[in-house]
Amino acid sequence: MNIDAWVWWLIGAAGLGIGLVITAMPELGMLAVGAVAAAVVGGLGGDAVMQVVVFAVVSVALIAVVRPIAARHRSQRPQLATGVEALKGKQAVVLERVDGSGGRIKLAGEVWSARALNSELAYEVGQEVDVVDIEGATAIVL
């Protein structure tokens, strides 16, 4: 039995796809797309040299274009701050006098221990303050 070249390309693409799933290496997916492109060329009657050229060009083009885009997205900070980072910059209301040694504030509906960023300043009950940092379970306010 003689198997057409395009079938071998599809078998190769499937093998690369399985490798992608197992290893999570996106480059294997790009090579699989190149193999599918070569299978299309083979199915349309292209010779072996043309199939290999299409495989190489499509694979290299995808790796050259997609990898830098993926790296750029991976290095970006998330748009939505969560946890302690989300509390920085929020306003709070003083519940107990806050100075350089401590106090209490209401921040995001919760009671937090707090201390003034500038130890010479004090904030009185009812005053609004800005949270500039969180150190452990203590909000640093200004």
UniProtKB/TrEMBL annotation:
Give every NfeD-like C-terminal domain span. 84-141
Q: Where mainly located?
A: membrane
Q: Which residues cross the membrane?
A: 6-23, 52-70
Superkingdom of this entry's organism?
Bacteria
Keywords, A to Z, come to: Membrane, Transmembrane, Transmembrane helix
Entry coiled-coil feature ranges = none
Subcellular localization, as worded in the UniProt entry: Membrane
**Which Gene3D superfamilies has this protein been placed in?**
Nucleic acid-binding proteins
Its membrane topology is listed as:
Multi-pass membrane protein
Q: Name one Pfam family in it.
A: NfeD
Protein name as annotated: NfeD family protein
In which organism is this protein found? Streptomyces lannensis
**Species lineage, top-down?**
Bacteria, Bacillati, Actinomycetota, Actinomycetes, Kitasatosporales
